[in-house]
Write a structure and sequence with these properties.
Layout (H helix, E strand, L loop, with lengths): L4 E3 L4 E5 L14 E4 L15 E3 L1 H6 L10 E4 L1 E2 L12 E3 L7 E3 L3 E6 L7 H9 L1 H9 L2 E2 L4 E2 L2 H5 L2 E3 L3 H41 L2 H10 L8 H12 L9 H4 L6 E4 L3 E4 L3 E4 L4 E4 L2 E2 L9 E3 L15 E2 L7 E4 L4 E4 L8 E3 L4 E3 L3 E6 L5 H9 L1 H9 L11 H4 L3 E4 L2 H15 L1 H25 L4 H9 L3
Parallel strand pairs: 3-8, 18-23
Antiparallel strand pairs: 1-12, 2-9, 3-4, 5-7, 5-9, 6-11, 10-11, 13-14, 15-25, 16-24, 17-20, 18-19, 20-23, 21-22, 21-24
Helix pairs in contact: 2-5, 5-12, 5-13, 6-7
Length: 463
C-alpha cells in the first residue's frame, strides 16, 4: 500500500514572522526573538537570540511560539552551504521558553486540528526530498535563497487520515524523545563536570573551606567568595562537604604569585602549553579511508563537550589533521563560537580545528575542562587575528597563565571526571543507532510502503 499525494496547503497554511525593526532589539530581556539562524534542523537554537520589550511582546502576541509549533527558515542558502540551507524545519519542544518569530521565519498553522497530526507534517517537511523541493523552488541566489508561503504550501504531502498520521507520528517521536533524553543527560553530566572544575580550579572552593575551618586569613580578592561559602554551609540546607580524604588533598591557605595573584599554597604557576601538546599530524586525502571519521567545524556544537555528529573520509578532498580518541578538538576559526569537544573516536578533522592532547594521563581531565572553560576560550578569542574570519593561535593559547594543582589533586579530579563523563560515549552511540533506524523507517512510514498496523509490535520492540 502507498498513500496518495496532495499538498501541504490542504492541511496547513504558513504564517510569516513579524517584521521587527532593528531598534526594537535589546541585548537582554524575557521575550526572545527567533531569527532564521535560530531555526536549526529539527530543533530551535536559543543560544544566540535578541530580545524585545515586554510591551512590544504583548502587542505582537500572535507571533509567540508554543509547544509543538513547526517553524521554517524562509531565507537561507542553497546546497553549497548545507548548514544554513533554506527550508530548515524545527519543532518547538516541551519546556522550551516562549519566543517571538521574526520575519522570514514561518510557522506552519494547521487548518483543522482533526484532519492530520501536526507532528506528521513536521516529519514530512523534515525529509530530504522536501528540503530538495524547497531549494529547487526558491528564488534569489545561491548565497541567499528565499521561499514564499505559497511555495511551502505546494510541498507534496501524503494524503492520510488523522488516526494513522497520529500513530506514525507517535512512533517516530518515540525515537526523537529517547535521543533528546540522552542528549539532555549528556548536557547535565557536562554541566556537573564544568561546575566541579570551576569550583576546584577557578574559585578554589576546597581551599577556602579549609582555610575557614582552620581559621586562616582569607586574601581580600577571595573574601567575597569566602563569605558566600560560609553562608552556604551555615544556611538551612547546607550542601554536602567533600569527603575527608579528598578535602585533605587541598591546602588550607594561599600564596601570592607574582603573575597569578593569590593561588593555593604549594601549587605552582605555569602556562597551558606546559601541560598540553598541539598535535600537528597531517593527513593527505589519498591516505584517508572512505570510512574514516571526519570532523569539521559544522559538526561541533557550541558549548558542548559531546560530539554528536560527524562525516566520513569519502567526503574529504583536502589535507586534514589527525586526532586520537580522547583528544580535545578546539575550533580556532571564530573561537567565540566556543566549539570545543572531546573526540569519542580517532579520525581526521578540519585544519581549522586544533588537536590538543594532555602531556600525560594525570593531566587529561584537567586539560579537557580547562580548554572548555569560558575564561580560556575568551582568552583565545581576544588574541585571535583576522577581521572577517578571526583565528586563534596555538602560540597564544599555549601562553595562557594558570595555577597548576598538585599531582594528588589532579589524580582525584581524574577519578571524579571519568566517573561523571563515562556515559557520554554510550549515549552518543545509542543516539546514532536510533537516528539511523528512524531515518531508515521514516520514508517508508510516510509513503505508506511500511504499514504500521501490520508491523507495530516489531517496531515497538526497538524500545
Amino acid at each position: 500500500m502507498s498513500f496518495k499525494l496532495t499538498t501541504l496547503g490542504e492541511y496547513a497554511k504558513v504564517q510569516g514572522g513579524f517584521a521587527y525593526k532593528s531598534k526594537d532589539f535589546e541585548e537582554n530581556g524575557l521575550a526572545a526573538v527567533l531569527k532564521i539562524k535560530n531555526v536549526r534542523f529539527g530543533n530551535v537554537d536559543y543560544s544566540d537570540v535578541a530580545y524585545i520589550s515586554d510591551d512590544l511582546a504583548k502587542k505582537t502576541e500572535a507571533w509567540a511560539t508554543k509547544e509543538g509549533d513547526i517553524l521554517i527558515s524562509m531565507t537561507g542558502s542553497g546546497p553549497n552551504a548545507p548548514q544554513s540551507l533554506v527550508g530548515r524545519v524545527a519543532r518547538v519542544g516541551a519546556n522550551e521558553p516562549r519566543a517571538w518569530i521574526n520575519q522570514r521565519v514561518g510557522r506552519i498553522v494547521p487548518l483543522n486540528n482533526d484532519e492530520i497530526h501536526p507532528d506528521f507534517l513536521f516529519y514530512v517537511m523534515s525529509q530530504p526530498s522536501s528540503q530538495e523541493f524547497l531549494v529547487q523552488n526558491s528564488s534569489g541566489s545561491a548565497n541567499q535563497a528565499n521561499i514564499s508561503g505559497k511555495v511551502i504550501e505546494l510541498l507534496p504531502c501524503p494524503k492520510v487520515g488523522y488516526k494513522e498520521s497520529a500513530a506514525i507520528a507517535a512512533l517516530v517521536r518515540s525515537f526523537d524523545e529517547k535521543i533528546t533524553l540522552n542528549t539532555q543527560t549528556n548536557q547535565t553530566l557536562e554541566q556537573m563536570a564544568q561546575a566541579l572544575f570551576k569550583s576546584w580550579f577557578v574559585d578554589f572552593d576546597p581551599v577556602i573551606d579549609n582555610a575557614l575551618a582552620a581559621g586562616n586569613p582569607i586574601p581580600e580578592p577571595l573574601a567575597e567568595r569566602a563569605a558566600l561559602r560560609q553562608a552556604l554551609f551555615e544556611g538551612d540546607n547546607p550542601p554536602p562537604r567533600l569527603q575527608e580524604a579528598t578535602r585533605q588533598l587541598f591546602p588550607d591557605s594561599f600564596d601570592q604569585h607574582p603573575d597569578l595573584g593569590w593561588i593555593p599554597e604549594g601549587w605552582g604557576g605555569g602556562h597551558f602549553g606546559e601541560l598540553t601538546d598541539n598535535i600537528r599530524d597531517s593527513a593527505k586525502p589519498d591516505t584517508i579511508a572512505d570510512d574514516e571519521h571526519y570532523v569539521g567545524l559544522e559538526h561541533v556544537d557550541r558549548k558542548s563537550l559531546s560530539l554528536a555528529r560527524w562525516g566520513y573520509g569519502r567526503d574529504v578532498d583536502s589535507n586534514k589533521s589527525q586526532f586520537q580518541k580522547g583528544d580535545v578538538l578546539f575550533g580556532k576559526l571564530r573561537p567565540y563560537f566556543h566549539k570545543v569537544c572531546i573526540a569519542p573516536f580517532g579520525g581526521v578533522c578540519s585544519t581549522d580545528i586544533l588537536v590538543l592532547r594532555a602531556k600525560n594521563e594525570q593531566l587529561t581531565s584537567f586539560v579537557r575542562l580547562l580548554a572548555f572553560d569560558s575564561g580560556f576560550v575568551e582568552y583565545a578569542n581576544m588574541r585571535s587575528t583576522g577581521t572577517r574570519m578571526p583565528r586563534a593561535s596555538w602560540k597564544d593559547m599555549a601562553q595562557y597563565p594558570l595555577a597548576i594543582p598538585s599531582i594528588k589533586v589532579l589524580d582525584q579530579f581524574n577519578v571524579f571526571i571519568s566517573s561523571i563523563l563515562s556515559p557520554l560515549g554510550n549515549n552518543i552511540t545509542e543516539n546514532v543507532t536510533l537516528a539511523t533506524l528512524r531515518d531508515t523507517l521514516l520514508p517508508k512510514l510516510l509513503s505508506g510502503e511500511l504499514e504500521l498496523s501490520k508491523n507495530k509490535p516489531q517496531l515497538e520492540d526497538v524500545f
